[in-house]
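Reviewers of the previous submission asked for a worked example of the structure-prediction workflow described in the proposal, so we include one complete record here. The input consisted solely of the amino acid sequence. No template or homolog information was supplied to the procedure at any stage.
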Amino acid sequence: MRTFLLCCTLLMGWLLAARPAAATHLVGGEMSYKYLDDQGGSSTPFRYQFLATVYYNKEVGSAAPDGRPSITVNIYNRSQPALLVRRVVIVRTQFQEITAALPAGCAISVPRVTMATYNAIIELPYSATGFQAIYGESARNVDIGNIDNAGGTGMALTMDITPTPIRNATPVFSDMAVAVICQNDTSFVLNNAFDADGDRLSYSFGTPYSINNAGALLSIDYVPGFSQAAPFGPTGYAALNAATGLASYLCRIAGRFVVAVDVREYRTINGQEVLLGTIRRDVQLVVRRCPGSPALPPAFTPATLARRSYTVEEGQEVVFPIEAVIAGGQPLTLKVSSALLDGAGPYDASFNNNAGSPDANTPLGAVTLTGQGAVGASFRFRAGCGSARATPYDVLAAVQNNVCGGRNIGEVFRIQVTRAAGAVGGIEGDAAVCAFSSGSYTARGLTSPQGFLWSVRGGTIVGPATGATVQVQWGAQAAGRLTVRGISTLGCPTDSVAQVVMLQPGPPISGTAFYCPQTSTGLRYSVVPEAGAVYQWSVSPGTVVGGQGTANVEVNVPNRSTAILRVLNTARPGCAGQLTIAPDMACLAFYNVITPNGDGLNDAFVIENLGHYPGSGLRIYNRWGQQLYQTADYRNDWRGEAQSAGTYYYYLQVSDGRVFKGWFDIVR
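From that input alone, the workflow returned the following structure tokens.
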């Protein structure tokens, strides 16, 4: 008979082994991290959010019934395992008892268990090979049946940290690392994990770790007849689904046993799948003698088990049943969990029309239903635009028979989301053009009834950017890039197609690109002369006032206008050179007449753009050199102060140290 047992419900009916638990407190756990940013200290700029979850016995006599107040994590360089990079003390941020309630009238003894979480931001230096984090502590329970000298053996958890150029968050386990199975019954326990980056995960058993007094990582010593492949001895059985983390166990012996589950994280980088790292989960299993007659197991309906994997395109919806029944009309609880059930989050998913309630202790949201003899509903997911990824989304279903000694079943359903179909075949248009020229480009190989999405680098789209053809005004960069996506019939963008456009420059123009207001005439520009060249100059708006046909030109532009100056060597084919001439709006301009008569026009001595230079000092003198006014921070507010009509002189020292001298008239 098969049974599926998940953490909290698994704790129901945990019957302690015949010998009393006389050792210490460690039950299991795991670590995880998330890269934050590079805003740390100068020698340790890379910041990570670290999280450790450790399970403790909360029984009488436990050394840490609520968990240690803090734990120590050692961080080593992966290329030099003996090199300790940092030793970090992480403070406990939360603890809670997770002992489950029993059905009414059930006399089975339920042990008490505490889940403690440790959270900290850790700063690390650069590493091209990454780090390994190790947390170890003594000791395990003395009555663990598959570890030699269990009471003298500690528990150690490990976690690889990717090289610092790779931004990553480790997978996070979907449920807790404690489980109970029935003696002589094949049981299923889920060690599924969720990876926010969409990396591919692979699950396998490992040999549990211990740690010595020097902090070195050790593998535990098995009792003869037990091993990683046979954690329940020669008469038992253990297997693990490498894709989903679903473990199946069969044990003929009552007692406590320890297994380790490794999760390897793979990512495709530059077309190759690479191993980012491994995290280790330590799990303690209690094999109990299930009391009384075996309870009836629930069963998923044939419609539920007809398919376990689904593939949808971005924008499509998938709906499938998750239903279970049991003979005799017994009470059932069905819990469906998934990262897709994120409540008001970005995913559009529901079970029984409920978007789910996210759980602070796991990366999943969940919906729970109850029923008598039958329970179930439809799971619905509409894949949003941008939700495609290389790995599937998992939907976990667990059903429990809510009677004393009741049985559980479970299953994992997987939804693969692919990119929107119908990518553009290519882009038609000139792949080499003159800088500053314009061009027309057309999406080839796809008629997109929903339109297109164009984007450009090194230029500007002129007019609509959603049609099959687009107009581009190129700039001065050496190369531009034009990208287009189609819009699928479901309204999602397809894969993009890009074309690099080489921008060929004309003769480079030397001369100021900015002019001060009121000094926009007589501006001079030049190009490096070539033998036999005839240069055609133009400026718009503005006028070429001298040098036409030569390598040197003089132009006037309207004051405060932005103008485009172009030059072309008409003696040979080629591209035109171009320069944008713009007014310098931070340039100081001095008015040389004030009329302080109160009419609101020219009433004060104004220096245009002085606001760009706060803290500029001004002194004003009359024609005999007598100082009439002084301020360390002029605000364009001197109004003549009853001075007679005539000529006056100013001395301005701006905040950047420059000095300006000149005169102005007061007219009354």
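The chain has a mean pLDDT of 88. We consider this example representative of the routine output the project will generate in years two and three.
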